[in-house]
Amino acid sequence: MEKKLDDLNLQALAKKLDEAFGSGIVSVILYGSAAADDWQERASDLNILCVLKTISTAEMKRAEPIFQWWAKQGNVAPVLMTEAEMTHSTDCFPIEFHDIQERRRVLMGRDLAAELPIDFRYHRAFVERELRSKQIRLRQKAVELLGQPERLVKLMTDSISTFCALGRHALILGKRPAKWKKQEVLAAMGEATGERLGAAQRVLGIRESGKKPAAQEVLGLLDEYLRDVDVIAGFVDSLDKQ
Fold first, then answer.
1. Average pLDDT per run of 10 along the chain, which is 242 residues long?
2. What is the pTM of this model?
3. Where are the CATH 1.20.120 domain residues in the chain?
4. 3-state secondary structure 146-192
């Protein structure tokens, strides 16, 4: 796994950021599936958090060629934050900062995530809100693609990673062992809810294998997948709201 990540220019990215910002960098952190031993070369993103001392248009201009180069490698843009923003955002991003704190790889600078006191007061509400909003958005996009099976399958496979991440937090809220690998998250959520979540398992399998279902099966798969997402959201809704 380490070799694959190096092949995708993580070290080159760190060098470019160092050359552009020097002492202005506080921390550069790899997070997400690549830091949780659940990364797949064809399907997973490399998520980077770059924390700077200040961010103005001057810093953004220096970042522009680096971000363009990074995008050409097929990667999503790094997240830019200041240290003050990161410190004061843990109450509104408890899901994201919890995951960064639990699984990360520091590419350069301080291990800023280790120092963060995360505010979990709104954790349950945020998890349910994210599940419901992503569910609604998935349905909205699907309506536009009902006659295009290939794009509909891509819509589902693009969304499964997010639902697995939120499923992990549903397990945490339910005081169950948190899982990181997507297959394990879905299996544990199946146990927690008493539902098999077979459609979500199948969508994940399609994402990992690249083997597409027959066109005539896609609408049925979507119907069952939306139901599985609703089961996960309903599980979170049933938990203590205090």
1. 55 94 95 74 76 96 96 91 92 90 92 88 92 96 96 97 95 92 95 96 94 95 97 93 58
2. 0.80
3. 123-237
4. CCCHHHHHHHHHHHHHHHHHHHHHHHHHCCCCCCCCHHHHHHHHHHH
